[in-house]
Amino acid sequence: MKYLIVGLGNIGAEYEHTRHNIGFDIADAFVEKHGGSFRNDRLADVAEVKWKGRTFVVIKPTTYMNLSGKAVKYWMDKEKVPLENILVLVDDLALPLEVIRLRAGGSDAGQNGLKSIQELLGTNQYPRLRFGIGNNFPRGRQVEFVLGKWNNEEWAVVMAKLGKCVELIESFASVGLPRTMNIFNTLVYPY
Fold first, then answer.
1. Rounded to an integer, what distance in angstroms lies between the CA atom of residue 153 and that of residue 186?
2. CA-based max dimension of the chain
3. Out of 20, 70, 101, 115, which one is annotated catalytic?
4. What is the rounded average pLDDT for all residues in the chain?
5. Is 14 exposed, middle or buried (0-12, 13-18, 19+ CB in 10 A)?
6. I need a surface site. Which of 2, 19, 91, 170 has the fewest CB within 10 A?
7. β-strands 128-132, 86-92: how paired?
8. Rounded to whole angstroms, how far apart are CA atoms 106 and 96?
């Protein structure tokens, strides 16, 4: 069985470990746990890891968030991964920091990476893990907040959630999306 795990984010040092790049951070945590490493390849940084007889192609698109669909479509086709074996890891401004939510599909909710993927795949019915980043920002400061770094108070929650996200990816591959949704549908920190 082959899976495509897609961490959404933006390339460049100025975006590292920002709220908007949590998809990259989850992908990094998963690959690190399983002893893999990323290499630069077409449209993405790519790692391949094996776990319990399953192969995971993990990508971090180098197209910037707004064009993530190009990388997803390319690697999905290249690796012959069926739609149901794709899992997109994305930040979600509408969810509180304490929440992780797994969905089988649905709206892009204004998230440009998801919008690009939907356009290129021709459907919004693909699995995604939404990592709540909260919305604790003054009016008119949304972009600054989303592209900002985690503060010290948030960091402990983020680190705990990263571990849970890695478990969720493993569950997604071992028991499938419906059972994983029963277990992990919405997680609220502390677990």
1. 22
2. 49
3. 20
4. 95
5. exposed
6. 2
7. parallel
8. 19
